[in-house]
Specification:
By secondary structure, the chain is an alpha+beta fold. It is 13% helix and 29% strand. A 6-stranded mixed sheet has the order 1-4-3-2-5-6. The structure holds zinc ion. The site of zinc ion has 8 residues, from loops.
């Protein structure tokens, strides 16, 4: 195997995630209107079945990448199929949690099972999720990052008569 990059779109770049049914024009970038390009990539999915949540890794060509800005649009049908096949979900509840950057795995570790202690999964989270995570973790955010604190408003005391 050569060390040449085989992907046009670098999986290590955090991107904005959109769904094919959320955007008005299916193969156009919702941010810059460039024509999107399909490429096969590997993803970490979460599937929910009842109260159980499972994760699994699988690849497909249902990601449409913008050549101009960090945006990826997911073909909802292809991912729903993958969630049903790979995750065994009947509920259809799934989310694409991360892109797996397989190219970040060193060659000498490629024979190891992915997710092994010696071979952690190189996950790249989406910009959408980073925002959510940051605001959830705001109490742990240290210097250099602005705190978005949700002020808990004091409840107005009811006047007792
Ligand atoms: Zn774009």
């Amino acid at each position: 195997m050569s060390r040449k990059k085989t992907k046009k779109f670098d999986a290590s770049i955090p991107r904005w995630r959109y769904w094919s049914h959320e955007i008005s024009s299916p193969k156009k970038c919702p941010k810059c209107s460039s024509t999107l390009e399909e490429e096969f990539h590997t993803y970490m999915l979460f599937v929910k079945e009842g109260s159980e949540v499972a994760s699994f890794i699988a690849g497909n060509d249902g990601g449409w990448f913008c050549p101009n800005c960090p945006v990826v649009v997911f073909d909802h049908d292809k991912f729903a199929n993958m969630a049903m096949m790979g995750g065994g979900t009947q509920s259809g509840l799934f989310m694409v949690a991360d892109i797996v950057n397989l190219e970040a795995i060193p060659e000498d570790k490629r024979h190891l099972p992915i997710g092994d202690d010696d071979n952690p999964i190189p996950l790249v989270e989406f910009l959408n999720d980073k925002e959510v995570i940051n605001s959830k973790r705001s109490s742990h955010v240290r210097k250099g990052q602005q705190r978005k604190r949700l002020k808990s408003r004091k409840k107005k005391k009811k006047k007792k008569r």
